[in-house]
Amino acid sequence: EFPGTIDLAKNRLAALANVMTQRACATQSTQWNYQTLAVSVPNPHVAHVELNRPEKGNAMNLTFWREMVECFKSLGADGDIRAIVVSGRGKIFTGGLDLVSLTQEMPDFFDTSKDIGRRAKSLRQTIEQFQQSFTQIEQCPQPVIAAVHSACVGGGVDLVTACDVRFCSADAYFQVKEVDLGLAADVGTLQRLPKIVGNGSFVKDICYTARKVYSQEALDMGIVSRVLATKDSCVEAALNTAKLIAEKSPVAVQATKESINYSRDHPVTDSLNHVRLINQCMLQSEDVVKSAEAMLNKETAVYSKL
Ligand SMILES: CC/C=C\C=C\CC(=O)SCCNC(=O)CCNC(=O)[C@H](O)C(C)(C)COP(=O)(O)OP(=O)(O)OC[C@H]1O[C@@H](n2cnc3c(N)ncnc32)[C@H](O)[C@@H]1OP(=O)(O)O
What we know:
Number of strands: 9
Bound molecules: ligand LTDHYY67
InterPro entries: ClpP/crotonase-like_dom_sf, Ech1-like, Enoyl-CoA_hydra/iso, Enoyl-CoA_hydra_C
Pathway: Lipid metabolism; fatty acid beta-oxidation
GO molecular function: delta(3,5)-delta(2,4)-dienoyl-CoA isomerase activity
Protein name: Delta(3,5)-Delta(2,4)-dienoyl-CoA isomerase, mitochondrial
Organism: Bugula neritina (Brown bryozoan)
Oligomer: single chain
Structural class: alpha/beta
């Protein structure tokens, strides 16, 4: 009877909902304060982690290695976050291990006055800590999407191989650069890349030669699943994919990540048993009923915080 009044009320409610969503996103993003990473929540339930040393080519110093663990532990434990995008600020995605910090912040590496056994032990601990920086991405329950532009060198390849999904821009290249520095890659590439691309000859080709793999070859060989024209369109595509994931049941998505990752490292029979154990719990989730009802009623299901 009062169509004008009803429309007005509807518009006000929509505006209010919009403001509340923006406030929720802003409140969430203030809890992550880092020197080498910028974390924001551009869409509800979606976190965007940007490597944030653009003036240093997002090179990985000691602070970065520590903050990656803190950041992904914190995001992983956040029941409001359902998908995460990782990209790099500035001209390049990352130049990898900070070669300046290697000499300035990690003097133990080169201190020949110390006993070899003690130096080796200290180095082993450092490598383990650095490995954890990227293993934390794999262990975080939410899917992580890498959006790579321009150079992704050394530690950058270690980082993106720990992510669940990789997109890149047309100008991107991947370089397993370690042999050029006289070392074997040791923070994940040699372990994860063969399982991503499934072509041992290609993996050894690029790891022995440190040659650059440009976007088209990266797509052909399965390092990435999409190539976008520019950095901006690449980040946008990653955020859109994250948004799509965030609309699904977080129970279903996180169990899916856990099962795929487990199956990568175990025989099929063990993996089938593993998913049985997950689903004997998760099939009882309210999300299953909600999803079925929404499907039958041609509605969109809304899932509660995990
Ligand atoms: C326990 C071990 C754990 C991990 C091990 C990881 C191994 C590796 O990561 S090996 C790879 C090491 N990285 C490199 O060898 C790359 C060195 N950088 C470059 O070759 C180039 O910078 C580039 C990545 C090709 C980018 O070139 P360009 O686009 O021309 O930019 P630049 O002007 O060169 O760089 C801008 C700015 O960033 C600094 N920078 C870039 N990468 C690094 C780095 N890896 N370490 C320290 N600094 C880096 C570069 O010096 C520039 O800074 P200025 O102050 O302007 O000089």
